[in-house]
Amino acid sequence: MSQRVISGLGSISKLKNILEDEDSKNILFVTGKKSFLTSGAAAATKAIFNNFNVIRFNDFEINPKLEDAIKGTEIARKKNIDTIVSIGGGSVIDMAKLILAFLDIDQDVEKIIDGNIKAKISSVKHISIPTTAGTGSESTHFAVVYSNKKKYSVAADFLMPKIVVLDGMLFLSNSSDQKAFNGLDALAQAIESHWACGSTNESKSFSRKAIPILFRELPKIVSGQAKMEKFQNFMEAANLAGKAINISKTTSPHAFSYSFTSEYSIPHGQAVWLTLPKIFEVHKNALDCNSQSILNYRELKISIEEIINLLGINHIDISDRLKNFVKDLGLECSMEKLGLTTISSREDISKKVNLERLKNNPVVLTKENICEIFNI
Ligand SMILES: [Fe+2]
């Protein structure tokens, strides 16, 4: 499904016109609790509450839970919603997608999240305005949902938001740590997308544009030294990383990341970078010794060379260079220091891997590779 993207500093002010053009009447605002105010989105959308029938839904925590999505769906049905506007981070946008997926009546939501049946298409429009940069969720056709602490992914073409507004002003007020976590997620997504088995020429063109901007600007964004227009560029780059993984999907660093988050409460963006630097080196070393574990040698060789050039780093000590990048953002990137102090704890997490994402990795990771990545 094609998507209209409206970009620019202050572009959230265009929302009223967009809603008029879309002939929207009954609108569900899915928002964060505090971020809606602190981002400036509440002030910028005040007029909309006066001109349309708007109901706000923010009664849910981060990492969307099935029961909360069902609650939101019931509100949307009762109020006869024709448009959903999601304003927030990845969890908020995913919540809006889940409501859309469950909206059509007489659907077995358990079967939808299990992947046994497809969600029925809804004609309700979804306009998405991220206040972080970013998960890229505003430009993907899938959403994460947790049920009984288990993570599921709901995917359908119609879940791609119809219109996206990218306004760099909205993530200015994110804390330094939030900017670092979200920026690292975007950069990992751009890098993983580039080397993913599922990459295409189109996804590579997105990640190619995103990688240098995200890598170069993130330290300045986090330290507060970036100029306003750089915030806009950065948000657009994070969105491109989202567009890239929408096609290619993510790979092994994401595959290993989910247990770090669910069992050690390590934020997603940081969790991905606990393995990415070593995995990058494993890929590079596999090429250097022409390893049998590479699925497509020529393609990986071109990809790794290109990523190194896009990052502007040396071919040697890649893992240390990337770890220092994370440390310089003020974040810890050692599993040991984040609570995985014993070999058995690290071994345990290494086994709780998302197999579907792992299969998308360009190198089949050997037992030795896993030991290297997890310091076992
Ligand atoms: Fe991610």
Q: What does this entry look like structurally?
A:
The strands form two sheets. Strands 1-8-5-4-2-3 form a six-stranded parallel sheet. A two-stranded antiparallel sheet has the order 6-7. The mean pLDDT is 95. With 376 residues, it is an alpha/beta fold. The chain has helices spanning 15-21, 35-38, 41-44, 46-51, 66-78, 90-102, 109-114, 176-195, 201-223, 228-248, 252-264, 268-272, 276-288, 297-311, 318-328, 343-351, 355-359, 367-374, and strands at 4-7, 26-31, 53-57, 83-88, 125-130, 142-147, 150-155, 163-166. Helices cover 52% and strands 11% of the residues. The protein has 18 helices and eight strands. It has two domains: 4-171, Rossmann fold, CATH 3.40.50; 176-374, Dehydroquinate synthase-like, alpha domain (Up-down Bundle). Helix 9 (201-223) runs parallel beside helix 14 (297-311). Bound molecules: fe (ii) ion. Fe (ii) ion is lined by residues 135, 185, 189, 254, 268.
Tally of structural domains: 2
The major pleated sheet works out as: 6 strands, parallel
- What portion of the residues fall into strands of 2 or more residues? 5-15%
The hetero molecules present are: fe (ii) ion
Low-confidence stretches: none
**Judging by the overall fold, what is the CATH architecture of the largest domain?**
Up-down Bundle
Number of strands: 8
Q: CATH H level of the largest domain: which superfamily?
A: Dehydroquinate synthase-like - alpha domain
List the total number of helices: 18
- CATH fold-level name of the largest domain: Dehydroquinate synthase-like, alpha domain
CATH class identity of the largest domain:
Mainly Alpha
Cα-atom radius of gyration: 20 Å
Order of helices and strands: EHEHHHEHEHHEEEEHHHHHHHHHHH
Q: On the 0-100 scale, what is the average pLDDT?
A: 95
Distance between the termini: 44 Å
Helix content: 40-55%
